[in-house]
Every structure is written in C-alpha cells, then in structure tokens.
Amino acid sequence: MEERTEAVQLQEIEQCEHIDELRKVREWVHAHYGQGSLIAGKDVSYARGLFINKLHDAIIGRTIELSEKALADEGMGPPPVSYAFMLFGSGGRGEQTLWSDQDNGLIYEEPQPEFRSETEHYFEKLSFQVVESLQALGYPPCEGEVSASNKAWRKSKDEWKALIHVWITEGTWEQIRHLLIVADARSVYGSEILVTELKRYYMEQTETYPAIIPAMLSNTLRHKMLLNLFGSFIKEQYGEDAGSVDIKYGAYIPFVNGVRLLSLCHRVTDTSTLKRLSSLKANKAVPEQLCERWTDAFSLILELRALAAHKEEEGLYTSSGKLKIRNLSKELQDRLKLSLREGKELQKAVQKAALAYPTGRGV
User: Fold this and answer.
1) pTM, full prediction
2) How far apart are CA 78 and CA 76, in angstroms?
3) Where are the domains of the chain?
4) Alpha carbons 45 and 59: distance in angstroms, whole number
5) What highest taxon heads this organism's lineage (predicted)?
6) DSSP state of 227
7) Domain 20-196 belongs to what architecture?
8) How many other C-beta atoms can be found within 10 angstroms of the C-beta atom of residue 239?
9) Which residues of 278-299 are buried (b: 16+ CB within 10 A; e: fewer)?
10) pLDDT 10s digits, 109-139
C-alpha cells in the first residue's frame, strides 16, 4: 500500500471537495491503521493515537466546511453569527479509536433578537447536514442522541449557560450525566473562545454550588473495574463475546470518569485524560508517583481498547468494546490486572476527594 506522510494525509483531507472523497480517505485510514502489532509500547501507541485523533479532527472539520458550502449553495449564505462545533465523549478528550461514534453539540453567539429565528434555523440545517454527512463517512450516530442535530445539544451561548445553571442547581441524576458530558467538551471547528467561555462558566458554577461535586459520585463510580474480589477478570458469559472482557465499560470508562471528577475537584480544565493526570501532578493535587502509576495504567488500557472487537456494518465503523483475553499473553494479562487494581485505587481516591470538596484538596 502506498505510504503517505502525516502531513500529506492531512493535506489530502483538506483538499476533498465532496463527502465521497472524504469517505475514500477514511477507508484508506482504516486499511492502513486498522491493522498492526498487538502492543506497540506506550510511546508508539500514544503517538499513533494522537495522529488518529488529528485525522478525525481534520475529517470532521472538513465535513463542516463542506456543509457550510452546501448551505451557501442553497442560498442560506454564511453562518449568521460565530459558532463552535463541539465534540464530547472520546472525541472531546482526543481519545477516539478508529471505531468511535458521534458525540457532538453546537454553541453559537447570541444573535440580535430580530434574527433569532433565522439564526436557529440556519444552525439546525447545518447540524443535520453535518451529522448526516458524518454518518455517510462511517461515524455511527450517538445512541443517546447527544448530537448537534438534537436541539437539546444545540444552543446559543446564553442558553447553554442557563442550562448548565439549571443542571447544577437541580442536580438530578440525568442532569448530572449531562454535566459530566459537557465537562469533556472541545471545539473541533469554529470559535474556540465560545467553548472556553462556557467551560469557565461551568467551573465558576461548581465553585458557587460546591454540593454538585459529591453529587457527581454516583454517576462517576457507576461502572466498576472488571476485576472480582479474588483478582480475576470478570468475563462475558454468553453470546459471541463469551470469554471476553468489557475493556470499554470495565476499564476505560471507569478510569476516564474517575480522572474527570478528580480534575473538577481541583479545577483542572484539560479534557484529555492523560493531560488531566499531568496537570493534577503539576498542581501537586496528586502525589507524583501515584499519578505516574495511574498514567501507566491508563496508557495500557488505551492500547488494549484499540484492539477491541470491531466491524464495518452498513457503512458504519463500530466496536463492541469487548476484548478476548485469550488473545493476550500472560504478561499482558498480568499488566492489565495491575492497571485495573490501580483503577480501583483511583476510584477510592476520587470518592475521598469529592466527599471532602471544597475543603479537602488532597488525594
């Protein structure tokens, strides 16, 4: 297969003029990066993961540009006000695999009152165009409807702030789930300052209403590490995944959730899990050695998550998040068990920090 430098691949994405051209690029990316050695090592895997997320960002960004152009060709003109297309979930954290689905939203500047209706109409049309185009490129729609095409996740700046205030002050389980989703928000296209301002407001609200932090524990600790009391893996019992472990919900998500809440406790604004850990260490919120152990543990989980069962079905790239343990060497299984034990310690530390918030600052 033809070799292409990273710069050339990104340039090819930027030069695509139609969605079908972007689809061909994505198919090439999957053919080229979807195979590889079982474990490449932390540094190599980290660099590879970063570049895969650069490719995702470039593809999504170009999709939005083409969607803007399509609306202009329909006579709707350019965007009426500045806006940002946001990624949540693994996209917001810069941790997408080749098989991640869509989790996105949109924030736009406040329009003049007399133009509010047409502004809302424009961004509704744009959002549907983008989400449908991404689906054509193989990104599955979000099963939970966390999507810019859903009005609940497409709002003006002031509407977003008002909604966050309601979520924080009322604090139902579902509202807290939404708050944790927004904590991972990242601008992938458009006015980054809108997202920065929203995240700043979010953090100010958690300081004004500190009871929301311990209230986040139930949602944060809902998923447990996939080790039982005897230190053995908790495996799937039935179906085609029998004998596999749920590396997504039994390792990756619990780690992500724990580091996210710990970061909120210590006012860390990064979205990447590894960057959050680095900031927690730099701020001395977590002892250096402990932070390094958690970093190593999460890095291995990221590597293994990329190996989970996956497929292309009806043009969509999907993953079950399940990993066949028998495909791992004894050494890797032992390393994974160690990482999961570190994850259990992380969850204990998060519970301690959240319950002590805002007076207790240490782990």
Assistant:
1) 0.94
2) 7
3) 20-196, 210-363
4) 21
5) Bacteria
6) B
7) 2-Layer Sandwich (3.30)
8) 8
9) bbbbeeebbeeebbebbbebbb
10) 999 999 999 999 999 999 999 999 999 999 9
